[in-house]
Amino acid sequence: MATTLITGGTVVSATGRAPADVLVDGEKIVAVLAPGSVLLGSDLTGTVDRVIDATGKYVIPGGIDAHTHMEMPFGGTFASDTFETGTRAAAWGGTTSIVDFVVQYPDQNILEQYGLWQEKAAGECAIDYGFHQILSDVQDSSLTAMDELISEGVTSFKLFTAYKGVFLSDDGQIFRAFQKGAQTGAMMMMHAENGSIIDVLQQQALEAGHTGPEWHALTRPWETEEEATHRVIMISRLTGAPLYVVHVSAKQAVQQIAAARDEGFNVFGETCPQYLYLSLEEQLAARSEEWGELEGAKWVCSTPVRSRHEGHQHAMWQSLRTNDIQMVSTDHCPFCMKDQKEMGRGNFAKIPNGIGSVEHRMDLMYQGVVDGFITLERWVEITSTTPARMFGMYGRKGVIQPGADADIVVYDPNGHTSIGLNETHHMNMDYSAWEGYEIDGHVDVVMSRGQVVVDETGYIGRKGHGRYIKRGLSQYLS
Ligand code: URP
Ligand code: ZN
Ligand code: ZN
Prior knowledge:
- It is a single chain.
- The chain has 13 helices and 23 strands.
- By secondary structure, it is an alpha/beta fold.
- It has a domain at 62-390: TIM Barrel (Alpha-Beta Barrel), CATH 3.20.20.140.
- An eight-stranded parallel β-sheet has the order 8-11-12-13-14-15-16-17. Strands 3-2-7-18-21-22-23 form a seven-stranded mixed β-sheet.
- Helix 2 links the parallel strand 11 and strand 12 (128-134).
- Helix 4 packs across helix 7 (222-239) and helix 7 (222-239) packs parallel to helix 8 (251-262).
- The longest helix has 18 residues, at 222-239.
- The protein is globular, with a radius of gyration of 22 Å.
- N-(aminocarbonyl)-beta-alanine binds at residues 69, 191, 247, 301-302, 331, 333, 353-354.
């Protein structure tokens, strides 16, 4: 087993920072030591195979992106990153674990779908991966499948109040699944938007001749997110199931989550970089020579990026500081412009929903530290430690301590990253939603279970190194 010493850096955790050396043996962290306490080559420590000099740099637990959609069949096409390309891009950006979604469309057999996703990912991934399960229709068999999946380490289930005829479950179906969540302790994840109202608004906008991508957001107003968030919180309260609201973008939805948390309920929320940085005015309404009105399709995702003038972005950053929102995932669901986003030319409702960001989350959130929105420790907490705790991986993932998997990132606060240029990112997309974003920091070294997968020469990992993470129940419940 190879040993690696990461020396000279500042180890940052969710609760503090300290100069320390980290000793890795095989796949595990075996010691966190006072700086310089390993005397290289001495009899005391034996031989260290590799030394990584982290002087002047941060040493942090590898990022965990708990919301990705590799190869997702959606919107009449497939998300353009495979498990191979998407996890490689994630590694480039300092993410060492993902939790992806197994998709079940109505009438599909849930356990068969789970088997299919295991097959898709096996032997393909550069980093470790787990699964959540999407439930689109809730039947008796779905409830027994939930038990089975929990024993397989799939301990979280996503349902939708939007996408009628595709994913939408009615309130009774959601209620039944939540009852099972309460019984088992499984985390119930909700896509919270009022899909029925959105369908009417979309139809009316199209009839009025509004076809451009900005109408994606204009037909999904914040009220539809607030209403659905309130509704699923009530279902969570009625049943006692823990609730995790995904991709929160509206200030008013955060207020609903905060109110439930203030009353002591196990209600949690995730936001994504797009809701912290991007807007209806600057992105969805953009026009370009190459794509004309379709340009804004690059940023079509649901929930939508919202108006800069309504205070949503400010509320998201604030909620990350106050822990009303607990973590940041990407909702990575990339589509190319060519042949994919293009499907929505002349009809915004046909643009496949999704943005690709899995490579950039650690950098984008680090910029939040530089800009004074969050602390260094909070950066580690919302990108790694809380995702590990929220989804039953903590101890193995999300922390630098003896016994944990050696998933480690050396991050240079004096480095610089120009993210998102199409020539320089590694996601399987023909554009970047983040082109032009400049980050005052740089991912220098990435280690996944003791293997260096990114260093100064670039990506040196391998397809198939990533292993399935059999998760436990959430460790975040109160
Ligand atoms: O636009 C999005 N979010 N696409 C992925 C599917 C989902 O709802 O998370
Ligand atoms: Zn969703
Ligand atoms: Zn998603």
